[in-house]
Amino acid sequence: MFSCTATADPGHVVVKLSGDLIVEHSREIHAELLARLSQDRDVTIDLGESARIDLSFVQILSALIKCPDRNVRIANLPTHVTDTAGVLGAADIIRELSARSGDDA
Which of 12, 24, 28, 97 has the most CB atoms around its CB within 10 Å? Predict the structure, then answer.
């Protein structure tokens, strides 16, 4: 199960990803995030209702770090995300995205 909802304020959007953020949903997750990034400079990914992640989701997050003209960050980071990222050797990616503030470029 996976769902995605977005709420927008002027100049900033919050994308809430819920459920399983795994390879079976990776195309949909990727498409949704690309659509939001094409419209908005500041995007927060809310992971508070995510159930689990896998390598495909970590790869999507890794690609988001490479968007120099966009400010992408993570909010409501559950322990399972940091634990899985750590096992996959991607803890730095999660730390970087969760440490970004609304003022970062």
Answer: 97
Residue type, 67: C
Dist. CA 50–CA 40, nearest whole Å = 23
CA-based nearest residue to 10, from 96, 102, 74, 98: 102
The span from the CA of 19 to the CA of 64, in Å, is: 20
Residue spans of the domains in the chain: they are 2-99
CB atoms within 10 A of CB 95: 14
Is the full-model pTM beyond 0.90?
Answer: no
CATH class of 2-99: alpha beta
Query: Distance of CA 105 to CAs 47, 52, 102, Å?
Result: 21, 29, 8
Phi, psi of 77 (to 5 degrees): -80, 110
